[in-house]
Amino acid sequence: MREFMAWPAASAAPAAGRSSPTSAAAVLEPLGVAIHALDLGHVRLGAAAAVVGCGPIGLLLTQVLRAAGA
User: Is the residue at 59 inside a domain?
Assistant: First the structure.
């Protein structure tokens, strides 16, 4: 979680076109946590799921579950 980091240019993607590149890119880490939680839960299509705690990761997990068909 650093402000600046050296990274190969081929591995970087621009975050341009958004209202604020840093605020849009800041959502990617919690989204990754939500996707990882979905993967760990082995949620199947049409399954029921409960999200306990609707902070940023819980809200993103709810959207990921909806997109996965739960």
Answer: yes
pLDDT at 47 over 80: yes
The total number of structural domains that make up the chain? 1
Residue 37 lies in a domain: no
Q: Is residue 68 part of a domain?
A: yes
Residues in the chain: 70
Task: Confirm if 38 and 62 have CB atoms less than 8 A apart.
Answer: no
pLDDT of 16 strictly over 70: no
Q: What is the 3-state secondary structure (H, E, C) of the chain?
A: CCCCCCCCHHHCCCCCCCCCHHHHHCCHHHHHHHHHHHHHHCCCCCCCCCCCCCCHHHHHHHHHHHHCCC
